[in-house]
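Quick review question:
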């Protein structure tokens, strides 16, 4: 197979959801179809591995596995599928958001009893900004959940995305009979008595009247809903799906492996091939271009605590990776050799021989790379657009435990902030250090790495949640600062306020109506 064909086979996506919606369960089912794991349970092992926040020994033990399951690759139906993990729970961090910069599509898993939950909403917003396609799987139909029509309106009302159902549940919970499959023009029967899983429609879009299901009241209800949807609902429109304006919705039950394969087949029929990626000059680098290029979207630290080693995750944008190849790191202009590189399979990390645009490789790193770095060979001279920064919501004040060890403290902070592990702020006048993160685990990883990699014990004092707003340098007036709105600067010296809450922010706006508060710094 030539390189272009290889690249066109790639389908790279992330699954987003709120914790407990069923992301792990569905991932395992997908891996099973891909033959990547023999039995479901492998992905689960990581999750139930007692990932206690405070117990770093456990995290150390789990680390190998957690890196492995960051990217899962398998072959299915002529495609090479890369699933990128977006951790939930305590692992939620800026990395979770940045991973969404490295995928070409997203699958959103929703618990049918809960509808759209907080974390799904946050992740969806990042996906929406990118304009990549989103496919929705509404899970746990084997349990009683909310009305399917309500769930569809929630997609529109809460997320602001139009939806088109690809199939429709016939009953739910104890009364779950199966799926009315608009797309494949058949009924998919849940726990069929006679073993007949699929019943094809006749030319009228119905099944044979002699089938016992036709006497089921839930079947009649589903037919009614279906008619309504076909009349008044959105039509499937591939262009809109690919532009992220319309989400195809699938129903199912991941736990009982019902509807997952149907979902996978349809998803893979429409999920896009690898996208090009924009440089800072606005040029789109096509995946089929000859020269290798890629960008670092995540750095995972501490494979071995005795060394400062880490893995830099690189999304290949164009060309092909070959073992030992020399590439240029555009930020420093230096040549680096990609020799110690891993690719990810569900069960093990394997040394990769070659990988192409769309794939993810893990480059062994001793402190060379930063999140957002561009790697290229050949003629590509401009870096890719910087990754967006995600406004932190949680804050800590941080000091060195041992005042004599200021040097290692400063060095550790500088390097970890540069790497993209955490956000740094300093109070404007006194220069006290505050750290910002999107998830609690980011602080704990930071503390752990300061101690282990920089030999610097630190004291962290929680400042709770804050809202960050930047101001224009010309508006700066130290008198505007108070304990409820801390005046600070970010690592680029841009001035900002950390507001205690929305109330404090409104109060500020009333008092200083001429001061513009910005969600991102711009002059
Ligand atoms: P994650 O946090 O999103 O990865 O969710 P998990 O896959 O770990 O699922 C959370 C819980 O929901 C587990 O107890 C699963 O067994 C259960 N679960 C997942 N899918 C289904 C489903 O389709 N039906 C039912 N009844 N339970 C499910």
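Suggested answer, residue by residue:
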């Amino acid at each position: 197979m030539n390189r272009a064909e290889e690249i066109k086979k790639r389908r790279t996506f992330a699954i987003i959801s709120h914790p407990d919606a069923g992301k792990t369960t569905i991932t395992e089912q997908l891996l099973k179809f891909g033959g990547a794991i023999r039995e479901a349970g492998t992905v689960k092992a990581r999750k139930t591995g007692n990932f206690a926040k405070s117990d770093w020994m456990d995290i150390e033990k789990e680390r190998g596995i957690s890196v492995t399951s960051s990217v899962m690759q398998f072959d299915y139906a002529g495609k090479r599928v890369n699933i990128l993990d977006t951790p939930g729970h305590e692992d939620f961090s800026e990395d979770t958001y940045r991973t969404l910069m490295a995928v070409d599509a997203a699958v959103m898993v929703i618990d049918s009893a809960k509808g759209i939950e907080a974390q799904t909403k946050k992740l969806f917003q990042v996906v929406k900004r990118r304009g990549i396609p989103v496919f929705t799987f509404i899970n746990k139909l084997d349990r009683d959940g909310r009305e399917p029509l309500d769930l569809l309106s929630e997609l529109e009302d809460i997320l602001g995305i139009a939806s088109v159902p690809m199939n429709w549940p016939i009953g739910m919970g104890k009364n779950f009979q199966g799926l009315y499959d608009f797309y494949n023009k058949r009924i998919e029967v849940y726990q069929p008595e006679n073993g007949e899983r699929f019943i094809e429609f006749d030319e009228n879009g119905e099944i044979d009247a002699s089938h016992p299901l036709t006497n089921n009241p839930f079947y009649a209800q589903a037919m009614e809903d279906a008619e309504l949807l076909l009349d008044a609902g959105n039509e499937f429109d591939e262009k809109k799906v690919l532009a992220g304006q319309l989400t195809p919705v699938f129903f199912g039950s991941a736990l009982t492996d019902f509807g997952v394969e149907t979902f996978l087949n349809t998803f893979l029929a429409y999920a896009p091939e690898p996208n090009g990626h924009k440089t800072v000059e606005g040029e789109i680098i096509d995946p089929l271009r000859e020269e290798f290029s890629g960008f670092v979207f995540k750095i995972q630290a501490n494979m071995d605590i005795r060394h400062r080693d880490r893995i830099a995750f690189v999304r290949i944008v164009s060309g092909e990776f070959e073992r030992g190849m020399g590439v240029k790191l555009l930020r420093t202009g230096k040549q680096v050799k990609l020799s110690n590189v891993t690719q990810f399979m569900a069960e093990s990390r394997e040394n990769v021989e070659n990988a192409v645009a769309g794939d993810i490789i893990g480059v062994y790193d001793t402190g060379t790379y930063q999140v957002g770095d561009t790697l290229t060979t050949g003629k590509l001279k401009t870096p890719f657009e910087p990754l967006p920064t995600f406004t932190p919501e949680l804050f800590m004040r941080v000091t060195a435990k041992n005042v004599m060890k200021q040097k290692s403290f400063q060095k550790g902070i500088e390097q970890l902030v540069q790497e993209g592990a955490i956000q740094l702020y300093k109070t404007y006048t006194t220069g006290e250090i505050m750290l910002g993160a999107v998830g609690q685990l980011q602080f704990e990883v930071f503390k752990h790495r300061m101690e282990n990699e920089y030999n610097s014990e630190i004291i962290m004092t929680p400042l709770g949640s804050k809202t960050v707003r930047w101001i224009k340098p010309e508006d700066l007036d130290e008198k505007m600062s108070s304990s409820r709105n801390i005046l600070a600067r970010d690592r680029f010296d841009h001035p900002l306020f950390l507001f205690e809450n929305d109330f404090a922010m409104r109060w500020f706006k009333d008092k200083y109506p001429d001061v513009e508060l910005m969600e991102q710094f711009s002059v």
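Why it works: Residues 394-511 form a domain with the Alpha-Beta Plaits fold (CATH 3.30.70.3280). The chain has 13 helices and 30 strands.
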